[in-house]
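Q: Can I see a sequence and its folded structure?
A: Here is a first one.
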Amino acid sequence: HTRTLWRLLERHRLPVFLFVNKLDLPGADRGALLAGLRALGFGIICYINHYPDFIVRLKSGMTVLVETKGDQLDNSDSRNKVELGTTWANKAGKWYRYFMVFDKQQMDGAITVGELLERLKEM
């Protein structure tokens, strides 16, 4: 079934955002994994520990990735994650969005929970 799914994604030229988990475990061979993915035709733009908390397909057909952050966090890596998510969404096309969401805290490129809810209503 996996090969069929990949063929369909390729045939319809749908963008794929692949998350690979557990690379931080002892014995994980990041280099071999990335080489294997490249051999399968994946273009690796980066790898960092950034996995959105939610991936939602709306009734409109829009796919939304949401990374939530607690206001107590210092944002040391959040700026890079916003940049990565925004770059992905821009390259994926008009049916894809990425949001980093804080409860109330402001940060360039991120929005609050209230702003997210308003934007989702518009989609």
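Q: Show me another, different protein.
A: A second, unrelated one:
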Amino acid sequence: MFHDESQSSTKLKSNDFLFSKSVQVTLQFKNADVMNEILNRIEIYFQKYLPEMLDTLNPRATASEIEAVENQLGIEFPLSFKELYKWHNGQIKGSYLRLFDELEFLSLNEILINWRLWAELVDNGINDDLSGESYIPGKVKKMYANKKWIPFAFDGFANYVGIDLDPGEQGKVEQVISFGIDEYFKFVFADDFETFLGWFVTQIELGNHKIFCRTRINTNSSDGIRNFLSYWKALFPQKFRSEFNEF
């Protein structure tokens, strides 16, 4: 009997494709479950200790709203990032309390506004005039600005924490980094967004969420807090003392 190799090959490829899609769907559900657990922990913490924080949060974003922003940015958000915005679409702009300590949790609209400012600088050749370094060599590209650095937390003075969708050779897509006007050295907070948010909620549960009110850090202070990143080092000393040296 004649054996059709092409049919067998096609069937195998089809089965491989279906298996791959099945694995992807399973991982998506798993990741969504992990994110929901993390977000529930954040909600429970603030309900108990600072309910006013929850009052600053916008309603959830819809899938179509998230997709519209993705289209304008020309990227696709990681699943964990989408889950955050399905929880709440950032904070009310100018809130006196800021979710990420001294950093405002940006709404999708504010992501677009801030991203466009930096995208325009990139288009106008800012990287020809200014540069940047990865604190851990190779993790973040040596650039001042990058259209694929997507901000989600903002200090109000053009410094951000965001996801990096265009990492250096030693970095990972979706790693969480610092960047902005004061951020010559780019730090990697976590290899992916889910890990970052899990670390963040653990810190606040341990009592390391120290500053709630909207105040500007005194960059000339004598306590070693010289800029945005130094502020995060002061908040979470164990993490940074174990991973980074002082400037």
